[in-house]
Each structure stands twice: as C-alpha cells, then as structure tokens.
Amino acid sequence: MKGFIDSKWAWGLLLAASLAFPWLAGNDYHLTVMSTAYIFAIATLGLNLITGYTGQLNLAHAGFMAVGAYTVGILTVDHGWTFWASLLMSGVICVVLGYFIGLVSLRLKGHYFSIFTLCVGYIMFLVIEKWDGLTHGTVGIMGIPEPEAIGGLTFDTPLRLYYLVLFILVVLVWVMRRIVKSLLGRTFIAIRNSDELAEALGINLMRNKMLAFMLSVFYAGISGGLYAGFVRFIGPDMAGVHHTFDMMIFAMVGGLGTVLGPLLGAIGMPWLTQSLQFLQEYRFIVFGPILVALVIFLPYGIVGSFLAWRARRDAKEGKPHAQD
C-alpha cells in the first residue's frame, strides 16, 4: 500500500470506475449529477492551484467560472459561434481578465487579498445581473447549443455528454499533475510556505503568483464554458460567492495542496448531499456536523491527512516520501 494513493494504479482504478459508472448509474439523473460534479471538479482544481499550492484564497473564483459560462452563452446564442470556439475563448477571456485583476489584487497579502477578490466577485455578479444588453440580465441566457459533433461523434444524449465531460476532466487533471510536479509547482509551494524565504531564494513573487492566478482562472473559465454547454441555460446566480465556498469545501474535505483530494471532494460531496435529500430541509443539520467532524479529525482533508500520516511514518523509519 505504500504510495498507492498517488500511484498510477490508483489513478487507473479511478479512471476505470469513472468509465464504468454509466453502466451502474441506472438512470440519466445520476449521469447528470456526476457530470455536473466533474465540471465543478475542474473549477475546484483551479481554485486549489492558487489556494492550496500558492497560498492565495481567491474568493472571486465563481465569478470567473460565470465569465466562462457567459462567454460561451453570448458567443453561441448572440453571435453564432460554434461551441468549441466559444469554449476556447472562455478560457482565454478569463486569463486576460485574470491578468488585469491579478496586477492589482496580488500586490495584497493574506486576508486583504481575499477581501479584495470577494469584492471583485461581487462586482462580477452585479455586472452580469445589470448589463442587460450583453448578459440578458436577470433573465439569463437560454437555448445555448449543445457541443457540435466531432467527425461522426455527437453529444446529444446524457451518456455522450458524460463521456465528453469526463474526457476533458481527465486531460485537465493530467495537465494539473504535470504542473504541480514540475519546478513551477515547487515554486508555487515555496511561495505558499513563505513569501520572504522564496524571494530570498531568487523567486520572482509577482510573476509566479500571476502565473498561478491565470492558470487557476483558466480552469474556472473552461469549467464554466463546459457547464453552459451541458446545462444550456445560465443565470447571474452562477457568479454567487456561495459557489466559491462550495468549491473551497470540496478542496478542504479532499485535501488542499493535493490533486487527488479536491477531485475526490468535488465528486463525493455532491453525492453526500444527494443521499441526504430524504431529510429535505433538515439535511443540513446532519451535513453540518459531518463537515465539522472532518475539519476536527482530518484537518488536512482526507487525502492530505493520509499523506501527512505517511510522511510522519516514513520520517520515523528514515524513508523518503513523495507528495501528490
């Protein structure tokens, strides 16, 4: 079992389970829930990069996800673009917007950065809600077209949309793992651990924070664009800060500063809430204590706490350990 949780075997089993899920789901509703969880997992991975690896809590993350969704909605519905071109632009526009917001916000540290991005996220929500000529205001954008066929492969059923979302998630997880295991990822971790020490080692703080921020919002934009094509309707509520807090819960439960943790959190937590639906309005009375217990007994999340335990064990045995 040593190192299994972050081995190729573990990732292979997770992929195999994802591929087999439609044949175990039983109905299209479960496929829709899982596909939505995959989409939010992409955004959560982006939030984890800037928060878990770089140490900057961006509370405007849902706003960037909404920008990506509205980019797809506006370009496809109002201007006749294809879904795939619009999806690419959703990431590009979020990166450009993130660059200018990052120039100002990343000069702040700690709580000041979080408060600033909270304000930015609320401004995004207001712009989306009030700019009727561009965003359709409170009505939202309806009739977003489904992804166009690629060759002979169409995406007109929940099953095919599920595999499309899964494919994009797998690609972006692979890219994220490459990033965090590279020298760039080590640089982000150094900045998270200590700004002063990282700067003393010759790391350009602003440049690397900007890069982490833009990569993070790129993931948010792509997930938002994918969400628009999947649901085919979007409204201003998508930019609400509560979605950012949901993604923070996903990352914290799974384990901030890992790739597998936020992924498992984003997939598992929606199913936990679904399983408590029979309690109706009382389900949060059960859900709340579960979260509190996880924070108390697993302060680094499920994957993070396991990795911390393994690191302590290996330290006692004098063995090296690898971090996911």
TrEMBL record:
<feature type="transmembrane region" description="Helical">
    <location>
        <begin position="247"/>
        <end position="272"/>
    </location>
</feature>
<keyword id="KW-0472">Membrane</keyword>
<dbReference type="InterPro" id="IPR043428">
    <property type="entry name" value="LivM-like"/>
</dbReference>
<feature type="transmembrane region" description="Helical">
    <location>
        <begin position="211"/>
        <end position="235"/>
    </location>
</feature>
<feature type="transmembrane region" description="Helical">
    <location>
        <begin position="31"/>
        <end position="50"/>
    </location>
</feature>
<feature type="transmembrane region" description="Helical">
    <location>
        <begin position="111"/>
        <end position="128"/>
    </location>
</feature>
<dbReference type="Pfam" id="PF02653">
    <property type="entry name" value="BPD_transp_2"/>
</dbReference>
<feature type="transmembrane region" description="Helical">
    <location>
        <begin position="57"/>
        <end position="77"/>
    </location>
</feature>
<feature type="transmembrane region" description="Helical">
    <location>
        <begin position="83"/>
        <end position="104"/>
    </location>
</feature>
<dbReference type="InterPro" id="IPR001851">
    <property type="entry name" value="ABC_transp_permease"/>
</dbReference>
<keyword id="KW-1003">Cell membrane</keyword>
<feature type="transmembrane region" description="Helical">
    <location>
        <begin position="284"/>
        <end position="309"/>
    </location>
</feature>
<feature type="transmembrane region" description="Helical">
    <location>
        <begin position="9"/>
        <end position="25"/>
    </location>
</feature>
<keyword id="KW-0812">Transmembrane</keyword>
<feature type="transmembrane region" description="Helical">
    <location>
        <begin position="161"/>
        <end position="180"/>
    </location>
</feature>
<keyword id="KW-1133">Transmembrane helix</keyword>
<protein>
    <submittedName>
        <fullName>Branched-chain amino acid ABC transporter permease</fullName>
    </submittedName>
</protein>
